[in-house]
Amino acid sequence: MRKEIDLRDREFVQASRFTRKRAARAVLAAAATGLLLLCYCWSQYYLEAMRRELAELKAANQRLAEQVKPLEQMEKEIKLLEAKAAREREIRESTAPYSRYLRLIEAAAPDTVIVEAISITDYRQLTVNGRGSSMHLIAGYHQALSRLAFISDPPVSSIDLAPDQSYRFVIKAALENGGASIDVEKR
Fold this sequence. Notes:
Layout: H1 10-107, E1 113-120, E2 125-132, H2 135-147, E3 151-152, E4 156-161, E5 167-175
Antiparallel strand pairs: 1-2, 2-5, 3-5, 4-5
């Protein structure tokens, strides 16, 4: 068997190993530094791209905000108009039944009986003021009112002879059904 004998001295061998380690460390440090530099450059490029995109998004957001302002104003106007329409509908619904009452009360009057005023209180108290040319026509009007389903027992409160030889009358009665439904005649 053959053996090789290393004739180099021990310090030289140790120095060469140390030199190789140092070179490897230097290459590794240079590679790490290069990698860090590459990462830094890439991050700066990425940050710049993000800044540009952020600026574009802010500009787009600004444009959209300007476009939304008229729409928000329109939405407020629509809500206001809807509230007004609801209020008008509520007023119409609260007055519509009475207008039907009034038309029926007026329609029940014969041609020579003139209905001058009709009033309905919150307590559903009806008052009809009018004048007629004869007591017989006023009595007929009274009977026509008593046939209406929404009026209960309409007594004639007063009849007076006016200076023009016409009779002035006042009929007071209570309204039935609270205005929920109106039948023209009682059954």
